[in-house]
Amino acid sequence: MEIDRRAFFASLGGAAAISAMDSEAKADALEDYMSEQLDNGAANSASTTSPDKKFPTVAELDAQITTRDYRRGVGTLFANNGRNVKKLEPLPANPTLLDFFKYRFAPANHVLQSATRAMKTGMTEEIILACLLHDVVQSLIKPDHGWWGAQLFEPYISPKATFAIRYHQTLRFYPDSAAGYEYPDLYYRIFGKDYTPPPHIEATYKMLKNHKWYMEPRLVTVNDLYAFDPNAVVTIDPFVHNVGRHFKQPKEGLGNDNSPVAHMWRTIARPDSPL
Ligand SMILES: [Fe+2]
Ligand SMILES: [Fe+2]
């Protein structure tokens, strides 16, 4: 993976801040920076901004499958792009959504940047929440992450926010310049320049085009970010009240509440469990 040295140094606060760090802290910072770039598979600024824009074909990407010891669809908690995974901190006994953000989804840079943008562009609280949650299920699994993500949150958020999460995955393949959404270069890179979405995505798009809630997932794609901004400072703090108002936190804790998706939260809580 290519590292943009200037962007990396800037992200640490510049030369003075770096000189105050010991070598272990510097190594940790580099690892964190790389993991942020890869966070949710949605950022590789060196690639997305390369001037020559040489994108692979579907066949070239297929040929890479057997060069890896993991599949591209595995969740980020379970595979670390060829690097060793980190020891995870235990969750509190009754874990909340914010605990999962802190201990399992972190750094969650991509969704925090998307939600921050949604807030700045004056979106409703429902859309801001959908942006905050739209990709975090990629910690667990990546293929069909819109459907997995909507399922993970459905018992706890509104039907509209669930709809927005479920279908952003479909709409990101279809430009809508009137809404301010163009097909992202990143997708030429990660899916292949000659990629066409599978039939279930095409059929879902047809359904969405005439749906009264079309703009819910569309606004998630409009606020979705496809390039990592190393200078952005984002935290969960501006969204804590939104989560308090719109996320029905079970008092027993996520995973302990016997909801139809409690097992998904338990798997995210204990990804080192062998069975
Ligand atoms: Fe997504
Ligand atoms: Fe996203």
**Strand residues, percent:** under 5%
Q: Give the SSE order as H and E letters.
A: HHHHHHHHHHHHHHH
- List all distinct small molecules, including ions and cofactors, that are bound in this structure: fe (ii) ion
Helicity, as a percent range: 40-55%
What's the shape? globular
Tally of separate helices? 15
Question: Any chance you could write out the topology, listing elements then pairs?
Answer:
Layout: H1 5-11, H2 15-19, H3 23-38, H4 45-48, H5 58-63, H6 97-105, H7 109-120, H8 125-133, H9 145-153, H10 159-171, H11 185-191, H12 199-209, H13 215-223, H14 240-246, H15 262-269
The structure holds fe (ii) ion (2 copies).
List keywords for this structure.
mainly alpha, about 50% helix, single chain, about 280 residues, binds fe (ii) ion
Tell me about this structure.
It is built from 15 helices and no strands. It is globular, with a radius of gyration of 19 Å. Helix content is 48%, strand content 0%. With 275 residues, it is mainly α. The structure holds fe (ii) ion (FE2) (2 copies). Residues 42, 110, 114, 134-135, 224 line the site of one fe (ii) ion.
